[in-house]
Amino acid sequence: MIYLDYAATAPMLPEVLEAMHEAEKKFFANASALHTPGHLALNEIEETRESLARLVGAEPSEILFTSGSSESNNTIVRTFEGHEIFTSPLEHHSIFEAAKQFSGKKLPRLYSFMLANNETGDILDVASVVREASQVPTPKESELFEAKDDFGRELVTERKGAYVHSDLTQALGKIPVDVHELGLDYATFSAHKIGGPVGVGALYVRKGVPFRPLIIGGNQEGKRRGGTYNTVGIIGFKAALKKIAEQKSWELYDTKVRELRDRLARRILEEIPGSSLNTDLTPGASLPNILNASFRAAEGESIQLYLDAEGVIVSTGSACAAGDTRPSHVLMAKTGDAEVAHSSIRFSFGLSSELSDVDGVMEVLPGIVSRLQKISTIEMEEK
Amino acid sequence: MNEGEDWVYSEIVKEHFLHPRNYLMGDEKKFDYDAVGTVGNPICGDQMRMYIKVHDGRIVDLRWKTYGCASAIASTSALSELAKGKTLDEAVEISAKDIDDYLGNLPKHKFHCSILGHDALRKAVENYRKGSPLE
After folding, report:
1. Catalytic residue chosen out of the listed positions A252, A277, A320, A378
2. Which residue has the higher pLDDT, A323 or A275?
3. Can you say whether the dihedral through the CA atoms of B74, B80, B83, B88 is positive or negative?
4. B47 to A323: CB separation less than 8 angstroms, yes or no
5. Percent of chain B whose predicted confidence (pLDDT) is above 70
6. Domain boundary among A223, A246, A269
């Protein structure tokens, strides 16, 4: 099998599997309990918190664990429920749909823009968002500023007119990320995109900014996120973080993986008539591991499944489900062309990808596209 | 993840998707048809075109083309098998459920895709009867 769907989920690293397997036996106790096994489990969680904080330039106290990126994203949107929320259709649905439902007219405002796009890999200029946010005047009062701790001390010491959140799920490990350099107030992370387990995510909440828990009813995470700790999953996250920090994975992505991605892009353009790229390959313009391409007159889901039958695993923006034949909202927003969006395929590489994967794709992809183009109702323009 | 033998689709859907019957490869002039019907639109989703050859009120042969998903391809392939040799009246009576039964049930969220070929066939028959075989 040639797996090129790392942007959806990366396979768990061997180090992660081993760490989790051990943890199932050693750290099963409830990490909130006062007894020794509970305390040992909590130590593991705190070490993970420190690892992530160190990697992204945060303080450990600014990191809290969640069930994944969707929860992290929802938590921030719900913190600003009833407030102005500026975002974009290019965002993940857990931001965009939540913002549609919960935004209002109050200030302070929330800006939520992901650093790297899920489908095209395009990198956004977050600095310009931070600049725009800094121009918004601070309201005199807001219920968000009123939060106090158990001793009656004010929790919100950073009173501003607008706060900035960025979903860093796709970017973590692929390019260097530093929440301070980016100027963020909130950031979202996920374990399963870096070789950790599904079901573990994290949220960076800068000290002194507004926050409202999504899940209440427990003292975990300093009352910021209720629910028994997923110790084993968090230990898996730690193993994945350790691996990417040790190998400086972003350097490998910038060299080895970029080379593979760009080679596939070149060959697609050269060898497949009617192909075009939806990803800007210029270094710095996109994540080095994602390539989104469209194939004129060939429908994306069919391409995906013919590739699947040949053992090549990719994803498509041409989702067609539950009576909804609208193509990817991201590609529609980016290209404005339904056919380009419907004919798109995302190839996403990981650190285990090899040159033979690119060759393997190109052994079957030109034939699959050509056949679909020949039975298509859409005319192929002469080259 | 699908590894060939473990698809979300049934074996027969997979078979019709991987080896579709009666599709028209390339130039439509290759097939001597009496009427054609097109439904759908690439802007809002899939598009399907059905070409029929009619003799004595019976569909003696047919071909199709599509810009469509796997379910559209498989269900239209199945429909083309069901419709071949039928009278025009019988052909338009073939229902989406007949196609679904023939394919051993499409996933529920894909059922709407199976209607596409079916609508294109009805449109072709309608055009044939109207005497405007080229739409």
Report:
1. A320
2. A275
3. positive
4. no
5. 87
6. A246
